[in-house]
Specification:
Chain lengths: 359, 359
């Protein structure tokens, strides 16, 4: 049984299909016999899922090529992006070809940006294989690559034509990456849905044990919540910023320690607690809410202490380079209770430094 | 006195201002005191115009940085694009910064694509300094870089917030590049405006002599015609293709001989005559019309014979890689009389080869 969520944005609508064993079910891809596809994946995913997917597509008359890029955030680069574009060109793919992104958030981001740029835009299909990418990259159309001077600094807003989420893929996902995905899941509870946060407090073990019903509900709800935020953002400019809870602090950790050493979700976990400390210092968040957030992150097997080897002062330059910075002033997402956040401008550096120090 | 053309596309409208000495007139840039700007230019334009432009902007309270990239089609690359993005990052430019593209078509294309991709899109202003870019790049929002495997294969559709065309810049433009621009000017006459073609037949010398009134009218009319085509394309998919008259043949010349050896306009000049030969072979174009086209191109000091060193067979692989190819079949724009073209699919390779041979 599948859950299907229709996401309507920018006058276009696309389905997110969530279920078991979807990689073998052609109908969810919204492809047609005779079309040409380039499947982009990485060297971790390829040995497990690539050949079966290609065989299934070919069996339905789709002509396939594939390109395998190195796995890891450190390869979310212009070079990898160029590798995908070169594969499209070397195989003479035209404007009517479709790119399929099979992998985690890095694959979705870099392949999505390649799809947006190849011949100024070809269609693409997201097949996210990690929990993080399933709850985060499926909605919103953000594609990007990193630059040595900043994360996600180069990219495009570009929507997929469909998203296929096969929960079976999580069976081969390392525990650490499953937990990293849960950091973004917990984020949705904190920023906008206290009932979902409650549900997570009672079902976190089911999720860690890959219970299919729990995962299906959890992924569906996260995509639904994100779709609400993104849709609202078309009129309300600040709304989408709430998705960045913990990300400005977290990006500083990732950037300073090198992308890939701390997983994105791990950095966001600590970043959310830093944002919670900021809220506390501003008198906006109760101690018991901070405790609930910390406890849930611990139960999800996520780090809750800042990296010891990183000096407190070294956060600021990274944070000032963040895309959320406007005219040199820090803008942060601050939780005010479970299920509610505020976007605040002009936060003093001393408060930021103390928030880091307390974490 | 300036001419202003308002281009309305995609729910957005922007002005193209055409006149003398506009680089010193702040109001045409639609900037405000306190904004930050990165000016992108090349090492040919920079010594002539850059400092005066920066001084003028700073005098009006705009905070400026600049980046100078190498001049030439051979530098319309991912490396140059990255150089611009790196300059934006190194100077801590935010989402509210504005990119100013000061130069010819290469600068407009690569800087426009950098603006589209930096933090997923910042505003940009086109200041085209060559005739070609003034009549071609000001309208349509096509930005791109080249790839070793194909021209303009990587890019985005991205509209400027304003276009400033200073006719004075043409005074420092080499004669050969002025003529190359006239190839695109003549193209507009052939594809959709026989009266404009007639006007060009009588005013081509005025244009070559940089008569201000003739240039103003000519540039305004070309932008207006292109805006008509691009606006119509929102409903009519094939309409925009007519702008590619001579380009599929021309791109083959540029790709085979190396971008920059033949100027784009020079390749288009010969390409348009090849398309005219195709039309003749299909019984669709009268000899006298071919003569008029050839004579006007000659008067504009453009090449009208194909490059001797390029084998006829070597055109086809390049043409099949063209973005206009659908499912491996050649699609060409074919003139049927002065002021009218048709987009034709499935043209036989033998006809293409004979068209090249006759040119």
């Amino acid at each position: 049984m599948q859950k299907i969520l229709n996401v309507a944005l920018d006058n276009r609508s696309y389905p997110i299909t969530i279920g078991e064993n979807l990689l073998s079910q052609f109908e969810h891809f919204k492809l047609h016999s005779g079309q040409r596809v380039l499947v982009v994946t990485n060297d971790t995913i390829a040995p497990i899922y690539l050949q079966d997917l290609l065989d299934m597509l070919e069996a339905h008359g789709v002509k396939t090529d594939s390109v395998i890029v190195p796995d890891g955030e450190q390869y979310k680069t212009m070079e990898t992006w160029n590798q995908i574009l070169t594969a499209l060109l070397a195989n003479n793919h035209t404007r009517s070809s479709i790119l399929v992104a099979l992998g985690g958030g890095v694959i979705g981001d870099v392949a999505g940006f390649a799809a947006s740029a190849y011949q100024r835009g070809i269609k693409f299909i997201q097949v996210p294989t990690t929990l993080l990418s399933q709850v985060d990259s499926s909605v919103g159309g953000k594609t990007a690559i990193n630059h040595p001077l900043g994360k996600n600094m180069i990219g495009a807003f570009y929507q997929p034509q469909s998203v296929v989420i096969d929960i079976n893929c999580l069976k081969t996902l390392p525990q650490r990456e499953l937990s990293a995905g849960l950091a973004e899941v917990i984020k949705y509870g904190i920023i906008m849905d206290s009932a979902f946060f409650n549900w997570l407090e009672t079902h976190i073990d089911d999720l860690l044990n890959l219970d299919v019903d729990a995962l299906s509900y959890c992924i569906y709800r996260c995509c639904e919540l994100k779709a609400q935020v993104v849709a609202a953002d078309e009129t309300e400019q600040d709304m989408r910023a709430i998705l960045n809870l913990g990300h400005t602090y977290g990006h500083a950790i990732e950037a300073e320690l090198g992308y890939g050493n701390w997983l994105h979700g791990e950095a966001v976990s600590v970043g959310m607690l830093m944002a919670a400390q900021t809220a506390k210092l501003l008198g906006l968040l109760a101690d018991k809410d901070i405790e609930r957030i910390e406890n849930l992150l611990i139960k999800a097997k996520l780090p809750v202490k800042r990296p010891e080897q990183m000096a407190i002062e070294s956060y600021i330059p990274h944070m000032l380079r963040d895309k959320k910075v406007i005219s040199g002033k820090l803008r942060l997402v601050i939780p005010t209770k479970i299920g509610q956040v505020e976007v605040m401008d002009g936060i003093e550096k001393s408060v930021v430094l103390e928030s880091i120090n307390n974490s």
